[in-house]
TrEMBL record:
Keywords: DNA-binding. Residues 111-150 are annotated as: Disordered. GO terms for biological process: DNA replication. Residues 115-124 have a biased composition (Gly residues). Homotetramer. This is Single-stranded DNA-binding protein. Pfam families: SSB. The gene is ssb.
């Protein structure tokens, strides 16, 4: 029997990403995503429904997300569904949770979006050089090397 497991989401982070590193050196980033759906009821009333999704990212993608994204920032995520199951230590009941394992992502929005910067305060705004402030406005000339063979 054929099967296909693909999830595509566009939403905003509900909290700053949490990154951990395994003893083997693999980075794991966990973050929450809020995805909104706007619709109109049969009565013509406009409604908004929000779905909260837990997402896990691994490796270099986890490091990049933790560095550049923070609560409120938008992200486009591609991934797969994963069902986690465990026994509750307190009650002994079986528990389960459906989440997404990130396979690919894209930044959405610009630097001025809400929640700029990562959870550790090291966003790309802080690592960029400050803008130049000169009295005159001119277009900088491109740095071209005339000896380039192509």
């Amino acid at each position: 029997m054929a099967s296909y497991n693909k999830v595509i989401l566009l939403g905003n982070l509900t909290r700053d990403p949490e990154v951990r590193v395994t003893p083997g050196g693999m980075s794991i980033c966990k973050f929450g995503l809020a995805v909104n759906r706007n619709f109109t009821t049969k009565d013509g009333e406009k409604r908004e429904e929000t779905t909260f999704v837990d997402i896990d990212a691994f490796g270099r993608q986890a490091e990049v997300i933790a560095k550049y994204l923070g609560k409120g920032r938008s992200i486009f995520v591609e991934g797969r569904l994963r069902l986690d199951q465990w026994d509750d230590k307190g009650s002994g009941e079986k528990r389960s949770k459906l989440g997404v394992v990130l396979e690919n992502f894209q930044f959405v929005g610009g630097r001025d979006d809400a929640g700029a910067g990562g959870g550790n305060g090291g966003g790309y705004e802080q690592s960029s050089p400050p803008p130049r402030t000169t009295g005159r406005q001119s277009t900088p000339e491109p740095d071209v090397d005339e000896d380039v063979p192509f």
